[in-house]
Structure formats: structure tokens, C-alpha cells
Amino acid sequence: MKEKAKVLVIDDDTDSLASFATALRRDGFEVHPFADPKEGLSHLASEGGDVVLTDLKMPGVTGLEVVRRVVRENPAVPVVVVTAFGTVESAVEAIRAGASDYLLKPVGIPQLRAAVFKAIKERSKNVELEKKDREIRRLREEKKRKDGVGRIIGDSRKMEEMVQKIHVVAQTRMNVLIMGESGTGKELVARAIHDQSPRWDMSFLPVNCAAIPEGLLETELFGHEKGAFTGAVTARQGMMEIADGGTLFLDEVGEMSLALQVKLLRAIEQKEVIHVGGSEVIRVDVR
Known about the structure:
By secondary structure, the protein is an alpha/beta fold. It is about 50% helix and about 15% strand.
């Protein structure tokens, strides 16, 4: 048996509320009437719904606010606006905010029925689009994960164990130390971890610490303020800020001086950096 479409009716006018609810129930809809917009929005958040029918001019939370909240929090649910104070400006504003239809009181029952049936069809299309979008995202993420590990070639037991570790570590927020001789593919492993992590759609930034002169490495990593040293004509972000939200791969980190390694360790542990020549603590979310 097909489930009834669920319609939430929000109107501070009790007569209109009762009239709309009665008419829609006759058409077979499951109707939930609310005189308080906050209660209606709370019910939508907890119990869901297929269509919201709302008055425009209400005390406390206006119909326009209802439209914006529903569009923001339940984008697949259409909103039909009904009002006795209709103007061209209010109609345009409601449609721009995301309303699917705009009706003027007094509303004829055929007109109301047509608007709600149209909204139900729109809801069905939105649900299908959501499913397709989720499937597309899933396929993209799956491809990204496969591509990430696919660059690593090998079929030995040790390689299988390493790939399994990549899968496990990638889903955590922990920092990772990758050890190996030069040319063994440490950056490939780092990229594979990034591509399979929740950060996959953010930046992956590799830095060869051995290729940057010691005097410049600190400013490259942490950034600097204007005038911090000769030639610093403008302030500049460091690699840890640029990679914020993503992954920073520090290759040949052992080539750094011990003093800089201590600063780097603190920045990684605290997720904070301070520009060279500055005093402001800058929060970064980087792996």
C-alpha cells in the first residue's frame, strides 16, 4: 500500500489552518497543522515531511524565514506560500528564497489542491535527484580511492599488508610517519592515504624539506609577517596554512635542523602556527 504524502501546514490563523487541513485530508494527504511556526519546523526536523504549506505574515517566525529554513535544512522539501497580504515584491522574495509556489488568500480548494499536487511531484523529482547525486558522489569517492591505491604496484604479502594499513589509517585523523629509502614510493603512500581519507577533496601539498635552504624553510612552513626580514615586503602564508583542511606531505623531514623539528612538532601537535616575525596564533587543520 502506497504511503500517504505528508503535508505540514503552518498558519497562525486557526480558521485558515483548519480549512486547509480539512481540504487536504479529503484528498488523502497526511496533514499536520501548526499554529506556531517553530513547532512546525521542529516537527519537520524530527519527523520529516513531503510538503510545507505556510502563511507568509506570522508573529515570531515569518513565512519567509520558514522558507529559508526549510530550503537550508531540507532542500528536497518544497514550500508553498499562502498569504492574504500579497504583493509583487513579497512574491518575488518568496520565490527567490526557494518557495515552489505562491498563493493569495482566499484560496480556492482546486487552486490549493493543484499547488500541493504540483509540490508532491516536485518532491518526487528532488528525491530522485538526491539519490543520483549520492550515487555520483559515491562512485567518485570510490574511483578516487581506487586511483589512490592503484598507483602502488605490487602483489607480495608485504604490499598487501601495507595497502590494508593505508585503508585503516586513511579513515582516522592521526598524523602518519612514513619511513623508507629514497625512491621507494613514500609520496605515493601519502597520496593514497589522502585520497582515501575524508580530506580527499581538499589539497594535498608535498614539500621537499631537503630542497629548501635552512634559512627559508621556517618561513615556507609557517609563513611570515611583512618586514620580518630583508625582502619580506608583504605578509605570506606558510605551507601549513595553505594546506588547511587537507594533507601536508613533508618529505625528507630528517634533513631539518633539530631546532626547526621541535617547532614543527609543536605545530603538528597543537595544530597552531605563528608567522615568523608575528605573535598571532593561527589555528590550522592539517594532517
